[in-house]
Amino acid sequence: MSPIAALGTGLSVAVFGANGGIGRALIGILQAEDSVERVYALSRVRPDNLSGKTTSIAFDLLDENPYRMPQP
After folding, report:
1. Phi-psi region of 28 (alpha: psi -120 to 50; beta: other; left: phi over 0)
2. pLDDT at site 29
3. Phi first, then psi: what are they for 31, rounded to 5°?
4. Domain count within the chain
5. What residues make up the domain containing 25?
6. In this structure, is residue 68 part of a structural domain?
7. Domain presence at residue 64
8. pLDDT band at 12; cut points 50, 70, 90
9. What is the CA angle 23-67-61, rounded to 5?
10. Residue 58 and residue 41: Cα distance in Å, rounded?
């Protein structure tokens, strides 16, 4: 059992800095986990390694309106 699966099933996980090296790797691991139902990828630029269970959210701490959904 993986450490993530030990947390339970139906997990929703948010990854901040999803377009960086560590964020991309973490998203890949989370997308492959059966216990993870949803992944929210928060970054200034939309990551390109997203699966169907991952939602990209544009997020910039310096932006006055960080909660906008990216255009498809």
Report:
1. alpha
2. 94
3. -65, -30
4. 1
5. 5-58
6. no
7. no
8. very high
9. 60
10. 8
pLDDT digits (tens, 9 = 90+) for 48-60: 778 889 999 887 7
Task: Please give the model's pTM, rounded to 2 decimal places.
Answer: 0.79
Radius of gyration in angstroms for the set of CA atoms belonging to the chain, rounded to a whole number: 12
Contacts (Cβ under 8 Å, ≥6 apart) of 36? 4, 11, 12, 13, 30, 53
Nearest to 36, CA basis, from 13, 2, 3 = 13
Domain-embedded: residue 27:
yes
Torsion angle defined by CA atoms of residues 59, 16, 31 and 33, in that order, rounded to the nearest 10 degrees: -150
Task: Give the Cα separation of 63 and 72 in Å (integer).
Answer: 20
Would you say 56 and 18 are in contact if contact means Cβ atoms under 8 Å apart?
A: yes
